Amino acid sequence: MYKNAEELLAICSEQNKRIWEVALDNEVKLTGMSRERVMQHFSIRLEIMFNSALKALEHRQATKGGLIDGVANCQYEYSKGESITGGYINYVMALAYSCSEVNASMGKICASPTAGSCGIVPAVLLGVMENKRVSREKTLEALITASAVGAIFTKNATVAGADGGCQAECGVAASMAAAAAAYMMGASDDKCLDAAGFAMINVMGLVCDPVAGLVALPCAQRNASGAVNALISADMALAGQVAHIPFDQVVDSMFKVGKMLPPQLKETAMGGIATTPAGQAIFKEIFG
Known about the structure:
Radius of gyration: 18 Å
Helix content: 55-70%
Strand content: under 5%
Largest sheet: none
Distance between the termini: 50 Å
Number of helices: 13
Shape: globular
Number of strands: 0
Structural class: mainly alpha
CATH topology: 2-methylcitrate dehydratase PrpD
Number of domains: 1
Order of helices and strands: HHHHHHHHHHHHH
CATH architecture: Orthogonal Bundle
C-alpha cells in the first residue's frame, strides 16, 4: 500500500512494475476481487466516461436553469472550422463540456474525482486515444494510472471543492489526466507524476464559486480548460521540463492553500463570480 508518490515510485522500482500495475494490485488487495474483476470495473467506468463525453456533442441536454445547455455542441461545431488552437484542442474541450452538460442534466457520469470535475479525465483519455491511435487496453491502463494520482490527493489532501476550492476538483482532475496522457505517450512513471505536478501548479489556488450554487457555471468552462491544462502539462513532462518541486510537495502545498481559502471561496456561492451582479441575477431568475 502506497501513501504518497515517493512510496509509489519505490514500489514500482522494487517490483519492476508501472504505476498502473501497482495501483491495480492495491485495488485487488483492498476489494478482495480478482484482478480480472477489478479490470472489468475499470473498463465499465471507462465506457461510462466515453459515453458522457460523446452524448452532448450533437444532442443538447436540458440542464438546471439552462446555464450550459448546448455548450458541448457549440464547441464541437467550432472545432470543425478555423480556430486559434486547432481542431484537436477544441474537440477535447467539447468532450469535457459534454460530460459537464450530461452531469448538469442528471445524466450518467463517472466522478473523476468529483461530479463537478467529471469531464477532464474522460476528455483527455478519449481525445488522446483517438488522436494518437492508442489502444483501448493502454487507455485503460492510463485510467488506472490516473486513479493512482487521485488516490494520493485523497490520502494526503482533498478532492472536495467545499474543503479546498476548485483546485481540489478540476485541479486534481487535471493532474490525474495529465499523468494518464503522459503514460499514453510513453512517459516513464516519474515523468507521469511530473506531469501531474505541473497541472496542479498551473491552477493552485483556484476558487470554487458556482453561480446560483449549481454545478454548471463556471464548472463546465473549468472542465474544458482543465482538459487543456492536462494536455499541456503532459507535454511539459514529455519535453523534459524539470519538476523542481516534487509531486508530494505540490500535493501538500495544494492542501495548505485550500485551508487558507476563506469559506466564501469554497463552494458556498458567496464569493467569486457567483456574487457578481450577473451571477446574482441568474440566481434570482432560477430560484426567485
